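Bench log, entry 3. Co-assembly request; chain sequences pasted below exactly as received.
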Amino acid sequence: MSREAGVSESSVKQIVLASRPKGPPTAENFRLEEVPMPALRAGGLLLRVLYLSLDPYMRGRMDDRKSYAKPVGIGEVMIGESVCEVVASDRPGYAAGDIVLAHTGWRTHAAWDGPASRKLDPALAPITTALGVLGMPGFTAYAGLYVIGKPKAGETVAVAAASGPVGSLVGQLARMVGARAVGIAGGAEKCRYATEELRFDAAIDHRAPNFAQQLAVACPKGIDVYFENVGGAVWQAVLPLLNTFARVPVCGLIAHYSGGGQVAGPNLLPATMREVLTKSLTLRGFINYEFSAEHFAPFLRTVAAGLADGRIRYREDITNGLENAPAAFIGMLEGRNFGKTLVRVAH
Amino acid sequence: MSREAGVSESSVKQIVLASRPKGPPTAENFRLEEVPMPALRAGGLLLRVLYLSLDPYMRGRMDDRKSYAKPVGIGEVMIGESVCEVVASDRPGYAAGDIVLAHTGWRTHAAWDGPASRKLDPALAPITTALGVLGMPGFTAYAGLYVIGKPKAGETVAVAAASGPVGSLVGQLARMVGARAVGIAGGAEKCRYATEELRFDAAIDHRAPNFAQQLAVACPKGIDVYFENVGGAVWQAVLPLLNTFARVPVCGLIAHYSGGGQVAGPNLLPATMREVLTKSLTLRGFINYEFSAEHFAPFLRTVAAGLADGRIRYREDITNGLENAPAAFIGMLEGRNFGKTLVRVAH
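Structure output for the full assembly:
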């Protein structure tokens, strides 16, 4: 990667929400625009985006319904976190050439006068990890598993999207406390990666016709922690395997995001509530940042140490060019990514 | 109530499960039998049942499916807890005339050689309270509300079956910590009882056509703790009112027990999971006895004190005669009881 600090560009590319998707998003829901380069604001930074993070939660922001954050408006730039280079700074402590983390959205440059940006040291870890294993996805895995799930040695932890940035860390963190890690992923290659590279104890292909049966075989002592990031059919296969007092941190429901057929019957709610009742289950939804104040620093220490000594591994799925972000995002929602989805915006 | 201690009877009446209900139970699912009086067993007690407790969980035991306890077999005596008088004792510390709590099931007499029975002091509290406000239903309310729900002053607690033995105590315990108590009950009389006698802040009739709207009005600051003991349509009305970080102890799902139409679509699970996720909800199923070791003694102290100084009130719905237990049970599942459902077996 070559970075041309201080290069002068006259315009900024950005991707806006052109229309709201009905079901899975398509290319037509996005529009690439070119706008004038913003000026450096008083007390702010002028940023050039190097890497943009694409994450499943962004799908929710494309809908016009109340969630934990307000939706992206039609014609507004898609939201997102990125690793940026400081082009110009009017903020003490930041200088041109610094690498920072910022919520710029899907654009090539941004004038930033928001809260303090976390400065990254490229010598400590590859800067892209701040969007993955050492960033929001990694902390989601850490907080959900260790703060809510609390697996004990000998227990079984199951997680879907096991080759993705959250799931892959959930399994590796589970093994670090002596739990059995069972991954669920789409396709033989991702399953092989989970067991051979990430050292999950087992990985099951959710596309297999006898998926539920295979999952049961992989969890001979049931499931004590199910880290829920997909919902849908995987949840239905997990539900009968949950042990009494099992914990279910819920950090995402990618299978529901585009609403495909989920409202048609049968009504699966009574069966879920019955298991909650008779097995004394805990279901706990969460957003990673509710735990930041107390747990972000120990997370960074734990995962950085795991990366350093090889107990933790990760994989990135990098697409080149901001103009290709919509296709990469759509592919990620369909499970076509393999590892943390990133867009290399400047190169 | 007159009790003729030591009266000699030649036979025992008992009610057995004649057949498994399909949907709501009917009289045909039960059979009254007469069997010989059992003999006092070595180290045991011979008990005469005075009051039998009827509780919603018994409906689950009538089905042939795995739950937290094994089902009642066809031809077996219906399970249940009762307040009994000791007729004869071969157990140190127990003498004829003592009043004890035992799991005798639906019968007039029982030979008991199970675990130690809790002895009741009729001078301290009416003996029937050991089956209600000072017994399993009361402890269910206490543990679910205080251990899982943890309401704070100024928060809103909602509970259904508000005139019943669990719901009525949930609301009164909520008020004791300064929370707003909103009850849901079937019919104007039960609602009036909840507000006037039990001093709930509001009570809503779930049979009202605009029930969901009325509930929203009664919870102007949303709901922080919903004590779930009914499920079904009440849950659907509660769900949109739950605040971020709301807690939902789940102790029962009476609306689901007889399965009426619950599996027909639409599929309500995705909407519930979405709220769990976006509002960081905690759903926690529980059985009261998982908390007994740590919390039963403080429960007894707290509730006995509340009864003594009038902050806690209760109501009993007593049916006379074991032969009328099936009708009382069926009526309770339909919400026709008003207060804790008991059967006076001996009088």
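Residues 16 and 144 of chain A are 31 Å apart (CA to CA). The first helix of chain A runs from residue 57 to 61.
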